[in-house]
């Protein structure tokens, strides 16, 4: 992988002023919903909180850790249904999205092979067998199993990247999710980029079927020019066209398949790239929903037609990372405000001036949002989870999870909760130059906690619970079938599905997915 090394400058600055442990307490602020003011330049290294909001911000400092709570590290104790099976009764009122067949599949320790009905849905009786509160491996859910299907559809197809299918998921790539009851699914779109993967396909994970499928085939690689072989984020003919005419009427830029001399590959669709947390599924758009992506420019993918709309530069600006004309570069997080019908994405890649922009569905009326809900250096080090009109943002400081931002999307009010490190985490050390690339966050309202990950020195990647009653962070000692190869760039590839009470973790293309079935 060839990731952007320039992030090290800002992560070093963060680390130099990072507090050892966060203190308790909450403060709130709100911003004008129509504000277009950006923050000014200058150092924000002592304050990782939003710079474009009004009101009081939180403070940083060293505090002693809170007392240990009695909350179990893997969730509450299970209850038992009328048949003696944890959670629910397949002989009674059952979720109609489960299959009703009698194939229970197979359970070998924490490796679960689902039993399915004739329509491919996981049977209710099979789901019942999944152990509670443990990492369970879902056998047969490797993304790279689609390789033969892609090659059968496109003879001679190959991934020119050095990571092949692993790069589709591993290279700072996130997923878009549909968490509605009965429609639980997720998509990875044009994942990879740089030298990791050239695979620009769209792939769907159906959670109720526990199966990957091809949503949209990748481009025919045999038609690409030979020189398209190193940084797959930028397509060589499109680069040349843009550099010759930056103000071209077509709106062409380097991150799309465009070649005026070769119509067969001039699809104007996005190249493979690091999508971070920018992809968001919006069910109310189009006939079957759309996936919105604010990576580099603004893109929309229509599920019903399997087509990408033409991309749009924010504010019709050329490729520029500076000030309010910048487009979106790296480490961004996106979300959808249903009340406004607007897509938001933060941060643009101008480092200490990193800010948020928003756009109406369809690509009209771009709006500069300043430091909402967070701007500056801190915006580049966040993990995020959206639940309805509530946005949860975990802010890292010098690699350390530091502050939770709770944003009410209807009112734009932001509440800041500084984290306290409990007995299992208070002695952890962090590399001030390590940054916090790839962190993830899942809010589980029923348990009153979040699951997140972080990277202390000498520990590798750790999972942690954050208790929203005490805002204490403790190690999550979760037993079960853990992946042999762990991708630290989790981004938005961890998702919680409230109606089936399960967390799903998509790791890399050569590993089966993992899940935790909660009670």
From TrEMBL:
Highest rank taxon of the organism = Bacteria
- Per the UniProt record, the source organism is Nannocystis bainbridge
- Annotated stretches, region: Disordered: 23-93
Q: Where is the composition biased (Low complexity)?
A: 27-87
Q: Know the name of this protein?
A: Uncharacterized protein
Q: What is the lineage of its organism?
A: Bacteria, Pseudomonadati, Myxococcota, Polyangia, Nannocystales
């Amino acid at each position: 992988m060839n990731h952007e090394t320039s992030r090290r400058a800002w992560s070093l600055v963060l680390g130099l002023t990072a507090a050892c442990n966060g203190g308790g307490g909450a403060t709130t602020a709100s911003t004008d919903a129509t504000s277009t003011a950006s923050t000014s330049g200058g150092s924000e290294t002592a304050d990782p909180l939003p710079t474009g909001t009004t009101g009081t911000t939180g403070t940083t400092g060293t505090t002693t850790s809170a007392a240990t709570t009695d909350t179990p590290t893997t969730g509450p104790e299970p209850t038992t249904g009328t048949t003696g099976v944890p959670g629910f009764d397949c002989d009674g009122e059952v979720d109609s999205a489960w299959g009703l067949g009698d194939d229970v599949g197979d359970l070998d320790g924490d490796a679960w092979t689902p039993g399915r009905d004739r329509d491919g849905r996981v049977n209710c009786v099979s789901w019942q067998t999944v152990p509670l509160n443990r990492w369970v491996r879902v056998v047969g859910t490797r993304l790279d199993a689609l390789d033969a299907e892609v090659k059968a559809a496109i003879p001679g197809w190959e991934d020119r990247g050095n990571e092949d299918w692993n790069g589709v998921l591993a290279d700072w790539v996130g997923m878009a999710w549909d968490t509605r009851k009965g429609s639980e699914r997720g998509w990875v779109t044009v994942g990879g980029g740089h030298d990791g993967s050239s695979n620009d396909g769209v792939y769907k994970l159906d959670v109720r079927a526990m199966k990957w499928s091809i949503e949209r085939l990748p481009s025919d690689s045999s038609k690409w020019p030979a020189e398209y072989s190193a940084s797959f984020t930028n397509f060589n003919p499109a680069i040349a066209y843009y550099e010759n005419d930056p103000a071209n009427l077509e709106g062409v830029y380097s991150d799309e398949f465009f070649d005026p001399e070769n119509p067969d590959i001039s699809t104007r669709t996005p190249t493979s790239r690091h999508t971070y947390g920018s992809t968001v599924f919006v069910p109310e758009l189009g006939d079957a929903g759309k996936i919105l992506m604010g990576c580099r420019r603004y893109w929309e993918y229509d599920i019903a037609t399997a087509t990408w709309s033409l991309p749009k530069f924010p504010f019709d600006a050329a490729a520029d990372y500076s000030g309010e004309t910048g487009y979106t570069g790296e480490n961004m997080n996106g979300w959808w405000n249903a009340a406004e019908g607007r897509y938001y994405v933060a941060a643009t890649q101008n480092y200490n001036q990193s800010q948020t922009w928003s756009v109406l569905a369809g690509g009209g009326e771009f709006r500069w949002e300043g430091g909402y809900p967070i701007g500056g250096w801190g915006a580049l080090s966040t993990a995020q989870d959206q639940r309805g009109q509530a946005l949860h943002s975990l802010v890292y400081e010098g690699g350390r999870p530091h502050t939770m931002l709770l944003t009410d999307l209807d009112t734009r009010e932001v509440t800041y909760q500084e984290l306290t490190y409990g007995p299992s985490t208070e002695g952890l050390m962090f590399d001030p130059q390590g940054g916090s690339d790839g962190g993830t966050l899942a809010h589980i309202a029923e348990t009153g906690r979040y699951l997140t990950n972080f990277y202390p020195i000498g520990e590798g990647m750790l999972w942690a619970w954050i208790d929203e009653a005490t805002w204490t962070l403790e190690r999550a000692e979760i037993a079960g079938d853990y992946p042999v190869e762990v991708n630290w760039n989790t981004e938005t590839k961890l998702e919680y599905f409230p109606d089936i009470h399960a967390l799903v973790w998509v790791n890399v293309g050569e590993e089966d997915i993992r899940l935790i079935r909660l009670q």
